[in-house]
């Protein structure tokens, strides 16, 4: 079954990044199971209970319950699709070049920053987790210790040097 795509706009047809860690995969599986075993049955029961109240045209609570059930079903379809297409990030023992799952320390102007490079679904820039599609992440991919990369920011280009790969 295909996942419905109802939102229109700039990002409508973009596919989600399939690269996730095993921990994220397990978390998504747990959420899916909870939706299937707890949330959906509750929503079905609520819809049934409200349907017994009579006229659907004036039963706003029934309409809202059906809407919640539709949202849960849509979320289940999206999670199933995401899990089906997931590619687990296996930490490569080769730390010669930057790859998905590696921690990279870079230096610029005497300051050092460490980033963990993962898929787009797990990014959290405030914690130093960036996507391999981000400007810094994509510039670092495939590079080695000692390599310098230039990243164009809004007002200037910044040069970073790769100090360490873990």
CATH class of the largest domain: Mainly Alpha
Please estimate the helix content. Answer: 25-40%
Strand content: 15-25%
Spatial order of strands in the largest sheet = 5-4-3-7-6
Going by CATH, the homologous superfamily of the largest domain would be Transcription elongation factor, GreA/GreB, N-terminal domain
Brief descriptors of the model:
Helix Hairpins; elongated; Chitinase A, domain 3; 166 residues; 3 helices; alpha/beta; 37% helix; two-stranded parallel ribbon
Would you mind describing this structure in some detail?
- By secondary structure, the protein is of the alpha/beta class.
- It has 2 domains: 19-88, Helix Hairpins (Orthogonal Bundle); 103-165, Chitinase A, domain 3, CATH 3.10.50.30.
- It is 37% helix and 21% strand.
- It has a 5-stranded mixed beta sheet with strand order 5-4-3-7-6.
- Strand 6 (148-152) and strand 7 (157-165) form a beta hairpin.
- Helix 1 (22-51) packs antiparallel against helix 2.
- The radius of gyration is 22 Å and the shape is elongated.
- The protein starts with 18 loop residues before the first strand and ends with a strand.
- The relative contact order is 0.14.
- The mean pLDDT is 87.
């Amino acid at each position: 079954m295909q996942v419905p795509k109802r939102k229109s706009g700039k990002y409508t047809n973009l596919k989600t990044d399939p690269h996730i860690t095993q921990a994220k995969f397990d978390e998504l599986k747990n959420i899916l199971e909870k939706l299937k075993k707890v949330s959906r049955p509750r929503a079905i029961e609520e819809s049934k209970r409200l349907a017994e109240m009579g006229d659907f045209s004036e039963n706003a609570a029934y309409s809202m319950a059906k809407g919640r059930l539709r949202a849960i079903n849509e979320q289940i379809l999206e999670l199933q699709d995401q899990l089906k297409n997931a590619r687990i990030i296996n930490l490569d023992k080769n730390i010669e070049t930057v790859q998905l799952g590696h921690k990279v320390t870079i230096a610029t102007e005497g300051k050092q920053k460490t980033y963990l490079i993962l898929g787009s679904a797990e990014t959290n820039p405030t914690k130093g987790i960036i996507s391999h599609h981000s400007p810094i992440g994509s510039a670092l991919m495939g590079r080695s210790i000692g390599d310098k990369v230039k990243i164009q920011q809004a007002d200037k280009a910044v040069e970073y040097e790769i100090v360490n790969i873990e």
